[in-house]
Give the backbone structure.
Amino acid sequence: MTSSNVIRIITSEAYVTGAITFLFKNVRNPLASGETTGLAIDTYYNNYIMDATFNDSTLYRTVNITEPAKTIMAFGIDFYPKNEGERATYVFNFLPSSTIEDTMLIMI
């Protein structure tokens, strides 16, 4: 069950011990940048709260969203040596859609 700010996950088996990892696929990055509000996790059993997030600090409970990356296009790829079965060095030539500044990172 979901609403605009709550996701309820019901497990199919009883929880024993250890970490539970939730992976949310196909979530698009929001267009707005900035820091989110604190993520809160509450654990329920038979409609009783068993564990709850401490709301006194947002440390480790927020996500900082940056503005979307500008497009960058590879317009040339070369490699050498070209012998089969040998380790090669690849050279990529990129064409950015805007100026790349010293403080920016290119992540591939």
About this structure: The first strand starts at residue 34 and ends at 35. Residues 34 and 65 are 5 Å apart (CA to CA). DSSP finds no helices and six strands in the chain. The mean pLDDT is 81.
